[in-house]
Amino acid sequence: MTPAAPLIRLEGITKHYKMGGETIAALAGIDLQVARNDYVAFIGSSGSGKSTMMNILGCLDTPTTGRYFLNGRDVAGMSDAELARTRNEEIGFIFQSFNLLTRATAVQNVMQPLIYRGVRPAERLRRATEAMARVGLEHRLDHLPNQLSGGQRQRVAIARALCSEPSILLADEPTGNLDSTTAADIMSLFDTLHAEGQTVIIVTHEPDIAAHCKRTVRLADGRVQSDVMNAERTSFRPRGAVHA
Fold first, then answer.
1. How many Å apart are CA 129 and CA 132, to the nearest integer?
2. How do residues 83-125 score in pLDDT, each as one tens digit?
3. Number of C-beta neighbours around residue 43 at 10 A
4. Number of C-beta neighbours around residue 101 at 10 A
5. How many DSSP H helices and E strands does the chain contain?
6. What is the pTM of this model?
7. What angle do CA 63, 31, 188 make, to 5 degrees?
8. How far apart are the first and last CA of the chain?
9. d(CA 187, CA 210)
């Protein structure tokens, strides 16, 4: 049987920035594949290249050299309109700061990506309600963000990402603004989504978050320092938790 094509394939990816008269290599030659239904964390310290990697994977930035294939398509060959459509349909973004509209209800926030896709209102509401149920917030549809806890707001952000039925959930420090117990709840939700077949990519600086994922890619100085499968994964424990 022919192996399934990877969802993501990076070949010789570099990214250079000009700062004054100096050229900074944020990424210095990345070769990497991500399979469908992978559950991978990119980890590294400040300046390691992980934020640049997230921007490239999310089609928010383009590499200086190299090729990025997403779902078999060379991203470099996409027009601006195709890139925008890819970001809206293929990639579900989840941010540390939630990025919710403060004057919109939870379900209205979840519907936002579908508005840009021209989905009819009744279908938008149906899909948004289903996404809210998937994250356990079917009883919070009409609540405003300031009426929700931090964990609930992050669940709304995850529901919004799921609403477009994306190929990838791309989460940037998704537990960074949460207390340790709530962070454990969010990681448990990612576990459930992965078990349902979702591809999950998390960008983090926290070792316990990375170790909980199925696979950890460590970046340093714009290169892949290590790429390991976490065979001994255990249930995520809140930072500072007492082990019985």
1. 5
2. 998 998 899 999 988 999 999 999 999 999 999 888 999 999 9
3. 23
4. 11
5. 7, 10
6. 0.91
7. 95
8. 46
9. 11
